[in-house]
Design brief:
523 residues, mainly alpha, two-stranded antiparallel ribbon, two-stranded parallel ribbon, 6 strands
Protein backbone atom coordinates (compact mmCIF):
# COMPACT_ATOMS: atom_id res chain seq x y z
CA UNK A 1 0.00 0.00 0.00
CA UNK A 2 2.81 2.39 0.88
CA UNK A 3 4.52 1.64 -2.42
CA UNK A 4 1.31 2.49 -4.30
CA UNK A 5 1.02 5.84 -2.50
CA UNK A 6 4.62 6.69 -3.38
CA UNK A 7 3.93 5.72 -6.98
CA UNK A 8 0.86 7.98 -7.09
CA UNK A 9 2.83 10.87 -5.57
CA UNK A 10 5.62 10.45 -8.11
CA UNK A 11 3.07 10.37 -10.93
CA UNK A 12 1.56 13.64 -9.66
CA UNK A 13 5.02 15.21 -9.44
CA UNK A 14 5.76 14.28 -13.05
CA UNK A 15 2.41 15.76 -14.08
CA UNK A 16 3.24 19.04 -12.33
CA UNK A 17 6.61 19.16 -14.04
CA UNK A 18 5.04 18.58 -17.46
CA UNK A 19 2.43 21.28 -16.87
CA UNK A 20 4.95 23.85 -15.64
CA UNK A 21 7.37 23.01 -18.45
CA UNK A 22 4.63 23.54 -21.03
CA UNK A 23 3.79 26.91 -19.50
CA UNK A 24 7.46 27.85 -19.52
CA UNK A 25 7.85 26.69 -23.13
CA UNK A 26 4.92 28.80 -24.31
CA UNK A 27 6.35 31.94 -22.70
CA UNK A 28 9.83 31.08 -24.01
CA UNK A 29 8.53 30.73 -27.59
CA UNK A 30 6.74 34.06 -27.28
CA UNK A 31 9.97 35.70 -26.12
CA UNK A 32 12.56 33.91 -28.28
CA UNK A 33 14.87 36.31 -30.07
CA UNK A 34 18.40 36.46 -31.47
CA UNK A 35 20.98 39.11 -30.62
CA UNK A 36 23.49 40.58 -33.02
CA UNK A 37 26.30 39.28 -30.80
CA UNK A 38 25.03 35.72 -31.25
CA UNK A 39 25.75 36.00 -34.96
CA UNK A 40 29.38 36.75 -34.18
CA UNK A 41 29.57 33.22 -32.79
CA UNK A 42 27.49 31.84 -35.64
CA UNK A 43 29.85 33.29 -38.23
CA UNK A 44 32.68 31.41 -36.50
CA UNK A 45 30.59 28.22 -36.50
CA UNK A 46 29.91 28.70 -40.21
CA UNK A 47 33.63 29.22 -40.86
CA UNK A 48 34.46 26.01 -38.97
CA UNK A 49 31.99 23.96 -41.00
CA UNK A 50 33.31 25.43 -44.26
CA UNK A 51 36.95 24.75 -43.51
CA UNK A 52 38.17 28.21 -42.51
CA UNK A 53 38.78 27.25 -38.90
CA UNK A 54 37.49 28.86 -35.67
CA UNK A 55 38.17 32.45 -36.73
CA UNK A 56 36.22 35.63 -37.42
CA UNK A 57 37.80 36.95 -40.63
CA UNK A 58 38.98 34.22 -42.93
CA UNK A 59 42.35 35.95 -43.35
CA UNK A 60 43.62 35.77 -39.76
CA UNK A 61 43.51 33.67 -36.61
CA UNK A 62 41.60 35.79 -34.06
CA UNK A 63 39.24 34.48 -31.37
CA UNK A 64 36.17 36.71 -31.16
CA UNK A 65 33.90 34.37 -29.16
CA UNK A 66 33.99 34.28 -25.36
CA UNK A 67 32.22 30.92 -25.01
CA UNK A 68 34.11 28.03 -26.68
CA UNK A 69 31.75 25.33 -25.34
CA UNK A 70 28.68 27.19 -26.59
CA UNK A 71 30.32 27.66 -29.98
CA UNK A 72 30.97 23.93 -30.22
CA UNK A 73 27.45 23.17 -28.98
CA UNK A 74 25.95 25.24 -31.81
CA UNK A 75 27.75 23.23 -34.51
CA UNK A 76 25.44 20.16 -34.58
CA UNK A 77 22.32 22.38 -34.43
CA UNK A 78 23.60 24.55 -37.26
CA UNK A 79 24.70 21.56 -39.34
CA UNK A 80 21.28 19.96 -38.98
CA UNK A 81 19.01 23.03 -39.20
CA UNK A 82 21.02 25.23 -41.63
CA UNK A 83 18.87 28.33 -40.97
CA UNK A 84 20.86 30.66 -38.66
CA UNK A 85 17.90 32.10 -36.75
CA UNK A 86 16.23 28.74 -36.13
CA UNK A 87 19.60 27.35 -35.03
CA UNK A 88 19.80 29.95 -32.27
CA UNK A 89 16.16 29.57 -31.21
CA UNK A 90 16.26 25.76 -31.08
CA UNK A 91 19.66 25.50 -29.35
CA UNK A 92 18.61 27.94 -26.63
CA UNK A 93 15.24 26.25 -26.12
CA UNK A 94 16.88 22.82 -25.93
CA UNK A 95 19.31 23.70 -23.14
CA UNK A 96 16.86 25.99 -21.37
CA UNK A 97 14.15 23.32 -21.14
CA UNK A 98 16.63 20.78 -19.78
CA UNK A 99 17.81 23.30 -17.18
CA UNK A 100 14.28 24.13 -16.00
CA UNK A 101 13.33 20.44 -15.94
CA UNK A 102 16.33 19.66 -13.73
CA UNK A 103 15.48 22.54 -11.42
CA UNK A 104 11.96 21.19 -10.90
CA UNK A 105 12.88 17.50 -10.72
CA UNK A 106 15.85 17.85 -8.37
CA UNK A 107 15.05 20.82 -6.15
CA UNK A 108 11.29 21.40 -6.11
CA UNK A 109 9.35 18.31 -4.96
CA UNK A 110 6.13 20.05 -3.88
CA UNK A 111 3.37 21.51 -6.02
CA UNK A 112 3.32 24.76 -4.04
CA UNK A 113 7.06 25.41 -4.43
CA UNK A 114 6.99 24.36 -8.10
CA UNK A 115 4.23 26.88 -8.76
CA UNK A 116 6.17 29.68 -7.05
CA UNK A 117 9.41 28.77 -8.83
CA UNK A 118 7.59 28.77 -12.18
CA UNK A 119 6.26 32.28 -11.58
CA UNK A 120 9.68 33.46 -10.37
CA UNK A 121 11.29 32.16 -13.55
CA UNK A 122 8.62 33.72 -15.75
CA UNK A 123 8.75 37.02 -13.86
CA UNK A 124 12.53 37.41 -13.99
CA UNK A 125 13.28 39.67 -16.92
CA UNK A 126 16.96 38.70 -16.80
CA UNK A 127 16.27 34.97 -16.86
CA UNK A 128 13.62 35.03 -19.58
CA UNK A 129 15.40 37.53 -21.83
CA UNK A 130 18.58 35.44 -21.82
CA UNK A 131 17.02 32.01 -21.89
CA UNK A 132 17.00 32.76 -25.59
CA UNK A 133 19.07 35.47 -27.40
CA UNK A 134 21.46 32.96 -28.98
CA UNK A 135 24.07 33.59 -26.28
CA UNK A 136 25.54 31.04 -23.86
CA UNK A 137 23.22 31.72 -20.89
CA UNK A 138 20.95 28.63 -21.20
CA UNK A 139 23.95 26.30 -21.10
CA UNK A 140 25.33 28.25 -18.12
CA UNK A 141 21.99 27.79 -16.32
CA UNK A 142 22.13 24.03 -16.86
CA UNK A 143 25.72 23.72 -15.64
CA UNK A 144 25.00 25.81 -12.52
CA UNK A 145 22.06 23.54 -11.64
CA UNK A 146 24.09 20.39 -12.30
CA UNK A 147 26.98 21.59 -10.13
CA UNK A 148 24.68 22.61 -7.27
CA UNK A 149 22.79 19.31 -7.38
CA UNK A 150 25.93 17.20 -7.00
CA UNK A 151 27.55 19.60 -4.53
CA UNK A 152 24.54 19.78 -2.21
CA UNK A 153 23.49 16.14 -2.54
CA UNK A 154 26.65 14.11 -2.17
CA UNK A 155 29.03 13.80 0.78
CA UNK A 156 32.62 15.02 0.53
CA UNK A 157 34.74 12.49 -1.34
CA UNK A 158 37.56 12.24 -3.83
CA UNK A 159 35.15 11.05 -6.51
CA UNK A 160 32.94 14.07 -5.96
CA UNK A 161 35.74 16.61 -6.23
CA UNK A 162 36.65 15.16 -9.63
CA UNK A 163 33.06 15.40 -10.85
CA UNK A 164 32.52 18.90 -9.49
CA UNK A 165 35.79 20.10 -11.01
CA UNK A 166 34.73 18.71 -14.36
CA UNK A 167 31.37 20.51 -14.27
CA UNK A 168 33.04 23.75 -13.12
CA UNK A 169 35.51 23.24 -15.97
CA UNK A 170 32.67 22.91 -18.51
CA UNK A 171 31.10 26.10 -17.16
CA UNK A 172 34.46 27.89 -17.36
CA UNK A 173 34.86 26.52 -20.89
CA UNK A 174 31.42 27.95 -21.62
CA UNK A 175 32.27 31.33 -20.11
CA UNK A 176 35.50 31.83 -18.22
CA UNK A 177 34.23 34.31 -15.62
CA UNK A 178 31.60 31.80 -14.40
CA UNK A 179 34.42 30.06 -12.51
CA UNK A 180 33.92 32.68 -9.78
CA UNK A 181 30.52 31.17 -8.95
CA UNK A 182 32.11 27.84 -8.08
CA UNK A 183 35.44 28.98 -6.64
CA UNK A 184 34.44 29.09 -2.91
CA UNK A 185 32.77 25.69 -3.21
CA UNK A 186 35.86 24.16 -4.81
CA UNK A 187 38.07 25.68 -2.10
CA UNK A 188 35.80 24.14 0.53
CA UNK A 189 36.13 20.79 -1.24
CA UNK A 190 39.91 21.01 -1.06
CA UNK A 191 39.72 21.99 2.62
CA UNK A 192 37.57 19.00 3.45
CA UNK A 193 40.10 16.71 1.77
CA UNK A 194 43.15 18.51 3.17
CA UNK A 195 44.46 15.26 4.69
CA UNK A 196 44.88 14.06 1.10
CA UNK A 197 45.61 17.47 -0.39
CA UNK A 198 48.08 16.44 -3.15
CA UNK A 199 45.70 13.78 -4.44
CA UNK A 200 42.67 16.08 -4.18
CA UNK A 201 44.51 18.83 -6.05
CA UNK A 202 45.51 16.34 -8.72
CA UNK A 203 41.90 15.19 -9.13
CA UNK A 204 40.81 18.81 -9.44
CA UNK A 205 43.42 19.43 -12.12
CA UNK A 206 42.20 16.31 -13.92
CA UNK A 207 38.65 17.64 -13.81
CA UNK A 208 39.84 20.89 -15.39
CA UNK A 209 41.76 19.06 -18.11
CA UNK A 210 39.40 20.14 -20.96
CA UNK A 211 39.96 23.80 -20.09
CA UNK A 212 43.70 23.24 -19.79
CA UNK A 213 43.73 21.63 -23.23
CA UNK A 214 41.71 24.52 -24.66
CA UNK A 215 44.18 27.04 -23.28
CA UNK A 216 47.04 25.11 -24.89
CA UNK A 217 45.14 25.10 -28.18
CA UNK A 218 44.33 28.81 -27.81
CA UNK A 219 47.99 29.67 -27.28
CA UNK A 220 49.13 27.60 -30.26
CA UNK A 221 46.35 28.61 -32.65
CA UNK A 222 45.48 32.18 -31.69
CA UNK A 223 48.71 33.04 -29.89
CA UNK A 224 47.00 34.23 -26.70
CA UNK A 225 45.29 32.57 -23.70
CA UNK A 226 42.25 34.87 -23.76
CA UNK A 227 39.84 35.82 -26.55
CA UNK A 228 40.36 39.06 -28.43
CA UNK A 229 37.27 40.45 -26.68
CA UNK A 230 39.19 40.31 -23.38
CA UNK A 231 41.75 42.75 -24.74
CA UNK A 232 39.04 44.86 -26.42
CA UNK A 233 36.87 45.20 -23.30
CA UNK A 234 39.06 44.67 -20.24
CA UNK A 235 42.40 46.25 -21.17
CA UNK A 236 41.07 49.67 -22.13
CA UNK A 237 43.15 51.99 -19.96
CA UNK A 238 39.95 53.52 -18.56
CA UNK A 239 40.32 54.67 -14.91
CA UNK A 240 39.03 52.05 -12.48
CA UNK A 241 36.86 54.62 -10.68
CA UNK A 242 34.93 55.20 -13.93
CA UNK A 243 34.35 51.46 -14.30
CA UNK A 244 33.16 51.19 -10.68
CA UNK A 245 30.69 53.97 -11.36
CA UNK A 246 29.44 52.20 -14.47
CA UNK A 247 29.19 48.93 -12.56
CA UNK A 248 27.01 50.65 -9.97
CA UNK A 249 24.75 51.91 -12.77
CA UNK A 250 24.45 48.31 -14.05
CA UNK A 251 23.08 47.09 -10.72
CA UNK A 252 20.78 50.09 -10.30
CA UNK A 253 19.46 49.60 -13.82
CA UNK A 254 18.48 46.02 -13.01
CA UNK A 255 16.61 47.10 -9.88
CA UNK A 256 14.73 49.71 -11.94
CA UNK A 257 13.90 47.60 -15.00
CA UNK A 258 13.62 44.14 -13.43
CA UNK A 259 11.72 44.01 -10.12
CA UNK A 260 12.32 40.31 -9.45
CA UNK A 261 15.87 39.20 -10.29
CA UNK A 262 18.14 41.16 -7.94
CA UNK A 263 15.67 41.16 -5.00
CA UNK A 264 15.46 37.35 -5.18
CA UNK A 265 19.24 37.03 -5.43
CA UNK A 266 19.69 39.42 -2.50
CA UNK A 267 17.27 37.45 -0.32
CA UNK A 268 18.93 34.15 -1.21
CA UNK A 269 22.41 35.45 -0.38
CA UNK A 270 21.21 37.03 2.86
CA UNK A 271 19.43 33.88 4.08
CA UNK A 272 22.39 31.73 3.03
CA UNK A 273 25.04 33.77 4.81
CA UNK A 274 23.05 33.67 8.06
CA UNK A 275 22.47 29.93 7.82
CA UNK A 276 24.82 27.37 9.33
CA UNK A 277 25.07 25.31 6.18
CA UNK A 278 28.62 25.53 4.87
CA UNK A 279 27.80 24.33 1.38
CA UNK A 280 25.03 26.87 0.98
CA UNK A 281 27.26 29.64 2.34
CA UNK A 282 30.03 28.77 -0.13
CA UNK A 283 27.63 29.03 -3.09
CA UNK A 284 26.33 32.35 -1.78
CA UNK A 285 29.93 33.58 -1.58
CA UNK A 286 30.31 32.55 -5.22
CA UNK A 287 27.48 34.92 -6.12
CA UNK A 288 29.18 37.72 -4.17
CA UNK A 289 32.50 37.00 -5.91
CA UNK A 290 30.77 37.23 -9.27
CA UNK A 291 28.98 40.46 -8.35
CA UNK A 292 32.30 41.97 -7.25
CA UNK A 293 33.75 41.07 -10.63
CA UNK A 294 30.78 42.64 -12.46
CA UNK A 295 31.12 45.78 -10.38
CA UNK A 296 34.82 45.98 -11.16
CA UNK A 297 34.50 45.60 -14.95
CA UNK A 298 31.62 48.08 -15.20
CA UNK A 299 28.85 45.57 -15.87
CA UNK A 300 27.64 45.37 -19.46
CA UNK A 301 25.53 47.17 -22.02
CA UNK A 302 22.91 44.36 -22.09
CA UNK A 303 20.58 44.98 -19.16
CA UNK A 304 20.39 41.91 -16.92
CA UNK A 305 22.47 39.57 -19.05
CA UNK A 306 25.03 38.75 -16.35
CA UNK A 307 22.44 38.22 -13.61
CA UNK A 308 20.63 35.24 -15.14
CA UNK A 309 23.00 32.47 -13.96
CA UNK A 310 23.23 33.97 -10.46
CA UNK A 311 19.42 34.12 -10.38
CA UNK A 312 19.23 30.39 -11.11
CA UNK A 313 21.77 29.67 -8.37
CA UNK A 314 19.78 31.90 -5.98
CA UNK A 315 16.63 29.84 -6.62
CA UNK A 316 18.57 26.68 -5.84
CA UNK A 317 19.79 28.20 -2.57
CA UNK A 318 16.28 29.23 -1.53
CA UNK A 319 15.00 25.73 -2.25
CA UNK A 320 17.91 24.14 -0.41
CA UNK A 321 17.94 26.21 2.78
CA UNK A 322 16.66 24.10 5.66
CA UNK A 323 14.90 27.05 7.28
CA UNK A 324 12.80 27.52 4.12
CA UNK A 325 12.64 23.93 2.86
CA UNK A 326 10.62 22.78 5.86
CA UNK A 327 8.00 25.53 5.59
CA UNK A 328 4.85 24.01 4.12
CA UNK A 329 2.70 26.67 2.52
CA UNK A 330 -1.03 26.11 2.22
CA UNK A 331 -2.65 26.85 -1.11
CA UNK A 332 -3.87 30.28 -0.03
CA UNK A 333 -0.34 31.33 0.98
CA UNK A 334 1.12 29.84 -2.20
CA UNK A 335 -1.32 31.69 -4.43
CA UNK A 336 -0.75 34.89 -2.46
CA UNK A 337 3.02 34.70 -2.85
CA UNK A 338 2.60 33.80 -6.51
CA UNK A 339 0.39 36.85 -7.05
CA UNK A 340 2.98 39.13 -5.41
CA UNK A 341 5.78 37.81 -7.62
CA UNK A 342 3.59 38.07 -10.71
CA UNK A 343 2.74 41.68 -9.85
CA UNK A 344 6.44 42.52 -9.50
CA UNK A 345 7.15 40.90 -12.85
CA UNK A 346 4.33 42.74 -14.61
CA UNK A 347 5.48 46.09 -13.22
CA UNK A 348 9.00 45.60 -14.60
CA UNK A 349 10.12 47.58 -17.64
CA UNK A 350 8.55 46.13 -20.82
CA UNK A 351 7.41 42.88 -19.11
CA UNK A 352 8.06 39.84 -21.25
CA UNK A 353 4.77 38.19 -20.32
CA UNK A 354 3.22 40.72 -22.72
CA UNK A 355 6.23 41.26 -24.94
CA UNK A 356 5.91 43.43 -28.02
CA UNK A 357 8.23 45.29 -30.32
CA UNK A 358 9.49 48.55 -28.84
CA UNK A 359 7.65 51.68 -29.90
CA UNK A 360 9.61 54.86 -30.49
CA UNK A 361 13.05 53.34 -30.13
CA UNK A 362 14.78 51.46 -27.34
CA UNK A 363 15.60 53.46 -24.22
CA UNK A 364 19.20 53.67 -23.06
CA UNK A 365 20.37 54.45 -19.55
CA UNK A 366 24.07 55.13 -18.91
CA UNK A 367 24.90 53.08 -22.02
CA UNK A 368 22.71 50.15 -20.86
CA UNK A 369 19.84 49.02 -23.10
CA UNK A 370 17.06 46.47 -23.20
CA UNK A 371 18.83 44.44 -25.86
CA UNK A 372 15.88 42.14 -26.51
CA UNK A 373 13.66 45.09 -27.35
CA UNK A 374 16.34 46.42 -29.69
CA UNK A 375 16.16 43.22 -31.78
CA UNK A 376 12.71 41.80 -31.04
CA UNK A 377 10.94 43.26 -34.06
CA UNK A 378 13.48 42.05 -36.58
CA UNK A 379 14.97 38.98 -34.88
CA UNK A 380 12.30 37.29 -32.76
CA UNK A 381 10.82 33.88 -33.50
CA UNK A 382 7.29 35.16 -34.05
CA UNK A 383 8.15 38.15 -36.25
CA UNK A 384 9.13 38.59 -39.91
CA UNK A 385 10.03 35.73 -42.22
CA UNK A 386 12.11 35.14 -44.30
CA UNK A 387 14.79 37.01 -42.41
CA UNK A 388 17.45 37.70 -45.01
CA UNK A 389 14.94 39.32 -47.38
CA UNK A 390 13.55 41.64 -44.71
CA UNK A 391 16.65 42.61 -42.75
CA UNK A 392 18.32 45.60 -44.45
CA UNK A 393 21.63 44.73 -42.79
CA UNK A 394 21.50 41.20 -44.25
CA UNK A 395 20.69 42.57 -47.71
CA UNK A 396 23.66 44.96 -47.55
CA UNK A 397 25.94 42.18 -46.38
CA UNK A 398 24.88 39.88 -49.21
CA UNK A 399 25.56 42.67 -51.68
CA UNK A 400 29.04 43.15 -50.23
CA UNK A 401 29.60 39.40 -50.58
CA UNK A 402 28.42 39.24 -54.20
CA UNK A 403 30.45 42.32 -55.14
CA UNK A 404 33.52 40.84 -53.37
CA UNK A 405 34.22 43.87 -51.23
CA UNK A 406 37.60 43.56 -49.51
CA UNK A 407 36.97 45.48 -46.30
CA UNK A 408 33.94 46.92 -44.49
CA UNK A 409 34.02 49.09 -41.35
CA UNK A 410 31.02 48.67 -39.02
CA UNK A 411 29.92 48.95 -35.38
CA UNK A 412 27.31 46.15 -35.19
CA UNK A 413 29.07 43.31 -36.93
CA UNK A 414 27.25 40.08 -36.05
CA UNK A 415 24.38 39.74 -38.53
CA UNK A 416 26.29 41.67 -41.18
CA UNK A 417 29.38 39.52 -40.73
CA UNK A 418 27.44 36.26 -40.97
CA UNK A 419 25.72 37.18 -44.24
CA UNK A 420 28.83 38.84 -45.71
CA UNK A 421 30.82 35.61 -45.37
CA UNK A 422 34.44 34.97 -44.39
CA UNK A 423 36.10 36.68 -47.37
CA UNK A 424 34.75 40.15 -46.58
CA UNK A 425 37.12 41.54 -43.95
CA UNK A 426 35.00 43.11 -41.18
CA UNK A 427 36.87 45.84 -39.31
CA UNK A 428 34.59 46.58 -36.37
CA UNK A 429 34.82 49.93 -34.66
CA UNK A 430 34.69 48.37 -31.18
CA UNK A 431 37.63 46.07 -31.99
CA UNK A 432 36.06 42.69 -31.13
CA UNK A 433 37.79 41.08 -34.09
CA UNK A 434 40.62 43.57 -34.50
CA UNK A 435 43.81 42.13 -32.97
CA UNK A 436 45.79 45.38 -33.19
CA UNK A 437 43.33 48.06 -32.09
CA UNK A 438 41.99 45.85 -29.27
CA UNK A 439 45.41 46.24 -27.63
CA UNK A 440 45.44 50.02 -27.85
CA UNK A 441 44.10 52.18 -25.00
CA UNK A 442 40.75 53.91 -25.48
CA UNK A 443 41.33 57.48 -26.63
CA UNK A 444 37.83 58.90 -26.90
CA UNK A 445 34.32 58.76 -25.42
CA UNK A 446 33.21 55.23 -24.68
CA UNK A 447 30.06 53.29 -23.91
CA UNK A 448 30.25 50.20 -21.69
CA UNK A 449 30.89 47.13 -23.84
CA UNK A 450 31.71 49.39 -26.82
CA UNK A 451 35.24 50.69 -26.57
CA UNK A 452 36.22 52.34 -29.84
CA UNK A 453 39.84 53.17 -30.63
CA UNK A 454 41.28 55.48 -33.23
CA UNK A 455 42.77 54.07 -36.42
CA UNK A 456 46.56 54.30 -36.70
CA UNK A 457 47.62 56.17 -39.82
CA UNK A 458 48.13 53.60 -42.57
CA UNK A 459 46.29 50.77 -40.81
CA UNK A 460 43.20 50.67 -43.06
CA UNK A 461 45.48 50.80 -46.11
CA UNK A 462 47.39 47.87 -44.65
CA UNK A 463 44.25 45.71 -44.56
CA UNK A 464 43.12 46.89 -48.00
CA UNK A 465 46.46 45.92 -49.53
CA UNK A 466 46.61 42.36 -48.26
CA UNK A 467 48.27 43.03 -44.87
CA UNK A 468 51.34 44.72 -46.31
CA UNK A 469 52.27 46.82 -43.29
CA UNK A 470 51.83 50.53 -44.10
CA UNK A 471 51.45 51.87 -40.56
CA UNK A 472 53.37 55.15 -40.46
CA UNK A 473 54.46 55.37 -36.82
CA UNK A 474 57.66 53.32 -36.39
CA UNK A 475 56.95 51.71 -33.01
CA UNK A 476 53.46 50.53 -33.91
CA UNK A 477 54.76 49.42 -37.31
CA UNK A 478 57.20 47.11 -35.52
CA UNK A 479 54.51 45.93 -33.10
CA UNK A 480 52.15 45.04 -35.94
CA UNK A 481 54.88 43.17 -37.80
CA UNK A 482 55.21 40.94 -34.75
CA UNK A 483 51.43 40.60 -34.41
CA UNK A 484 51.14 39.51 -38.04
CA UNK A 485 53.54 36.65 -37.34
CA UNK A 486 51.14 35.44 -34.63
CA UNK A 487 47.85 35.92 -36.52
CA UNK A 488 49.00 34.99 -40.04
CA UNK A 489 52.35 33.23 -39.77
CA UNK A 490 52.99 29.53 -40.29
CA UNK A 491 51.22 27.83 -37.40
CA UNK A 492 54.05 25.88 -35.74
CA UNK A 493 57.09 27.70 -37.10
CA UNK A 494 59.85 28.33 -34.50
CA UNK A 495 59.67 32.08 -35.23
CA UNK A 496 55.94 32.19 -34.50
CA UNK A 497 56.21 30.12 -31.31
CA UNK A 498 59.01 32.38 -30.09
CA UNK A 499 56.95 35.50 -30.89
CA UNK A 500 53.92 34.08 -29.02
CA UNK A 501 56.03 33.60 -25.90
CA UNK A 502 57.46 37.11 -26.17
CA UNK A 503 54.01 38.67 -26.67
CA UNK A 504 52.55 36.97 -23.62
CA UNK A 505 55.54 37.96 -21.50
CA UNK A 506 54.92 41.60 -22.44
CA UNK A 507 58.15 42.08 -24.38
CA UNK A 508 56.49 44.33 -26.97
CA UNK A 509 54.24 46.36 -24.67
CA UNK A 510 56.65 49.28 -24.65
CA UNK A 511 56.02 49.75 -28.38
CA UNK A 512 52.37 50.54 -27.63
CA UNK A 513 53.44 53.05 -24.98
CA UNK A 514 55.77 54.80 -27.43
CA UNK A 515 53.06 54.89 -30.08
CA UNK A 516 50.50 56.41 -27.70
CA UNK A 517 52.91 59.20 -26.87
CA UNK A 518 53.26 60.01 -30.58
CA UNK A 519 49.46 60.40 -31.03
CA UNK A 520 49.88 59.44 -34.67
CA UNK A 521 46.35 58.28 -35.42
CA UNK A 522 43.44 59.32 -37.58
CA UNK A 523 40.74 61.46 -35.95
Amino acid sequence: MRWRLIKIDMTKQRLWIVVFLLIYLLVLIRNSWASDDAFITLRVADNILHGYGPRWNGAERVQVFTHPLWTLSLLPFYKLIQDPFLTLYVACAFFSLIAVFCLFAWFSPRLSTSMIITVLLLSSKSFMDYSSSGLENPLSHLLVILFAWIYLREAFSEKRILLLSFIACLSTFNRIDSLLLFLPALVLELWQLRAHFPKALGLMALGFLPMILWEIFSLLYYGFPFPNTYYAKLTTGIPQTDLYRQGWFYFINSFKWDHVTLPVISLAVLFSLFSRERKVISLALGILFYFTYLFRIGGDFMSGRFFSATFVLALVLLLQLSILKNIKLNYAASFGLTAVVLFLGLTSFMPHLFVRAADGGVPEEQGITDEKMAYYQCCSLLNQWPRENLLPVAVKAQMARSEKERIVVRTSVGIYGYYAGPDVYIMDKVCLGDPLRARLPVTWKWRIGHFERHYPVGYVETIENGFENQIREAHLHEYYDKLLIVTRGKLLSPERLKTIVEFNLGKYDYLIDEYMQSKDWEK
